[in-house]
Design brief:
The complex is a heterodimer of chains A (93) and B (251).
Chain A: H1 14-55, H2 60-91
Helix pairs in contact in A: 1-2
Chain B: H1 2-7, E1 18-19, E2 28-29, H2 30-52, H3 61-81, H4 87-105, H5 120-149, H6 158-200, H7 207-245
Antiparallel strand pairs in B: 1-2
Helix pairs in contact in B: 2-4, 3-4, 3-7, 4-7, 5-6, 5-7, 6-7
Classes of the chains: A mainly alpha (93), B mainly alpha (251).
Chain lengths: 93, 251
Amino acid sequence: MFELPMIIAAAATQAAATADAGAYIGAGLMIGGGAVGAGIGDGVVTSQLVAGLARQPEARGTLTTWMFIGVGLIEAYAVIALVFGIIVLFAKP
Amino acid sequence: MAAHILAATLPIGEHWWVIGPSGSLWNIHMDTVIMSLLAAAILLLLGLYIRTHVTYAAPSRMQNAVEATMEFINGIIEDNLGRSPGTIASIALTLFFYIWVMNLIGLLPIPYFHSPTADVSTTFALALLVFVLMHIRYIQTSGLGAYRGHYWTRGFKAIVLNPVSVLLTVVTELSRPLTLSFRLFGNILAGEILLIVAGSLLPLEAAVVANVLINPLILAFGLFVGTVQAFIFTVLTVAYMAIASESAEAH
């Protein structure tokens, strides 16, 4: 069996097992919600980019630059949700 | 690469050299400090090398690349500020190259290398720097009176609106360094976690498959994300400086 670098300790008591289950579900919801939001936002930005390119193909450089700026800003919150999910999953505060 | 699996024996978010009580806020992650000093040393050496070999006649490829990057970011600054870049160009370009090199160092298959930007201390320090610079720019441009005028105004009718205005302005100003730091930190940390997971996904006997197939994809993704995030940090810094530089009559 391969070894995960993170040792997931077996929960000894019922309370610890509930906390573990809650952590897994919570982290899954956080990461999933962030991914859905980022997907919708990126889709809107890219669709507007394609519409702008269809109107004016000469503006390719400027429009693509602004698309990357938009994607970076949109995925910020998805990534922040990911970081919180990882904190909940492994550090279990 | 076996080095990734070796480096993967560290738990996520742990540092291998910490000065001070571990687990508390008041410790120094010396491995992050060493990595960021290494990134700065690489940048300095690169800059000195290009500076001594600069020619007008037939520029080398590296000089071309650096000049193209500088022109690009200068163009962004001109778009946002509306006038020729001055001090802000130095700040923006330094931030871009430094954050770029810091993001990319973590992708090298050398054991115990990790990106200094995968540590929230580094990114928060950079965001705090931008925050302080922005407020100094505010005071430089409009003077202390207009600086206070962002928050509240005199007048009878403004007594009800002042708390709202103060609250909104404080929240806006505070959210900027927070989102700047967490955006960069989260993206680079996610890249490193991907590397660790890819290294440990298959049993060690099949590690060759991981080396050849999965690692290039993840490295390419990490490269892309590192560049984009450095660029976003720079663009946002320039935009905040532009907001801070507009004079009071422009409203």
